[in-house]
Design brief:
The chain is mostly helical. The chain contains 6 helices and 4 strands.
Amino acid sequence: MPGRDDRPLGSSARAAATRAADLVNVLLTGEPDVEAVRAVLVSHGEQEPLDLTAADLPRLREAAQRLRTVFAATTVTAAADALNELLVRHARPPRLTTHEGAHPWHVHVDSHDDAPWDEWLIASSCLALANLLADRQHAPGGLCASASCRRAFAELGGGSPRRYCSTRCATRERVAAHRRRE
């Protein structure tokens, strides 16, 4: 299934940043199960079978908590600082891989092709978010301004910065504000 720019999912910084936000959301909402995380991974181009187990979830949740600090950053400088801190702690020298021909060539900054899921999540997400920040000179994402939501989202478009994760949240907040004024 092609991504927004007609490349395979996960092959662009935009696609990987969206994957990061989706994984942060599924991992930090309630008690995620393996199938929910697997569904997000597969929807973003990971190929079955995935060796993801329930034992991976606590470390994935910790990685998601760390990544959430990037989405929570309110300025480009704060986002860059959070990314730099995470990259220093979690990234390795860049390398190209195809996962033995299973995927197109792409850059990894985790330790190896079979790195633990949490290492892969934080390293690949930071690489994508850092590339978005450098390309656009804006924070690469945010947290939904709706107090009842607060989901992470990747900031992919031009124009004014987004405040909400979706049109649905923006509409719900506008309607609520209108009703308060009546």
